[in-house]
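Build the 3D complex.
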Amino acid sequence: MCELLGMSANVPTDICFSFKGLRERGGRTGPHRDGWGVAFYQNKGVCTFKDPMPSHESEVARLVSDYPIKSTAVVAHIRQANRGRVGLENTHPFSRELWGRYWTYAHNGQLKDHQSLPTARFTPVGTTDSERAFCFLLSELDKHYPTKPKSRRQAFSFIRKKADILRQMGVFNMLLSDGEYLLAYCTTKLHWITRRAPFGIARLSDIDVDIDFTRETTPNDVVTVIATEPLTCNEQWHKMSPGQWQLFYRGEAIGPNKE
Amino acid sequence: MCELLGMSANVPTDICFSFKGLRERGGRTGPHRDGWGVAFYQNKGVCTFKDPMPSHESEVARLVSDYPIKSTAVVAHIRQANRGRVGLENTHPFSRELWGRYWTYAHNGQLKDHQSLPTARFTPVGTTDSERAFCFLLSELDKHYPTKPKSRRQAFSFIRKKADILRQMGVFNMLLSDGEYLLAYCTTKLHWITRRAPFGIARLSDIDVDIDFTRETTPNDVVTVIATEPLTCNEQWHKMSPGQWQLFYRGEAIGPNKE
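Done.
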């Protein structure tokens, strides 16, 4: 299996602290040794660092955990391969352009019969069930909305319905973002936390690192972090239930069930 | 204007030496301060590092120039903005998927009336003339070949013909790769060099750095480097003429004019 990490924020925020925790699970505190990746959005642009090496050993992952890249939406993943060989083409997150926006996605789980999933305009490059599911979702979206819909929130609602089909095929925990919205979809395991004023001190579970968010933030900052397993040991994370989904926009949970 | 750097190799090769030279031109020996990017292919996978900061000052660029990422095809760019604000969405290289392959592109030049270029399936995310020209090329390719052509070389020949249209609109020096082939198209300035046994010592023009390629290579390695301006001061680079193009495959120039 794999682990997911996402961030949605109302101001450009770095993910060094959370990524530091996740990185340990890629070969040290966790078995996810088969690659890692992280996509950072800045406005409509996106930059994705990825590497088929274990994140714990990767020099690039070290840079990402130390060097503050400010972003309002992040999708990250560490991989334990089940379908598809270990290689860059099978390393999450995956991105495609639709309607003049980059869509970025990462998946935790395993799907049966994924070869039967129809894809149209979007073709997988690698051989994972994950990328095929992503191409399926975007192809369905493109078929349903040949031109950009007025409401992107509606588009995410459509994606969520199509994810219900994938859920029937196995384990499908997913993060998907267009740089503004971030959709978290859970079939087995996914947690999230929204941090806002008054901020406090957080402590990572996987490595002896603390952060005092009062020093890193302004009173108006709203930052949500989503992860397969909670990354901190002294905060209360929301645990998502099987079949539950949550849409985030600029740091805030906006549906279906607000905090 | 901007500067381009590309590499095509028959074995996974790092680009640290050449990138070290290019990086200096992004703020120190050259005026290209408005961002930089580099895409590395490994088999069909691609990873693109990009940053709207000057490469000379970028921590990520420092990593890329020091840390050997092995690749058989590379497309890199340093930017001096003319059309489109400085920002990640306008930072080259740009990538899109077509026929289950990632296509990556970078442009040096400026195009008049680029808004008039038709794009179909591929939509620009940013606001540069460069990205629009890329979306035009891929949209034309997709229209002409609704399914993957048997010969990708033929596809590159088609792209070259469409590039002749862009050439009428201004300055259009370009690198475009699908991870196996790399097309270099010149309207004003582009140079290339193929290194093969017997290898020698090369010296960068922009910074006091030498490399002894005999220590870094095996006798069968063939590596071509393409750059706006020669990166070394003690080697003979091929100078391309206006309107000339050259296709590379696994390190070798394969047309129209071989070495």
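Chain B has one domain: 3-255.
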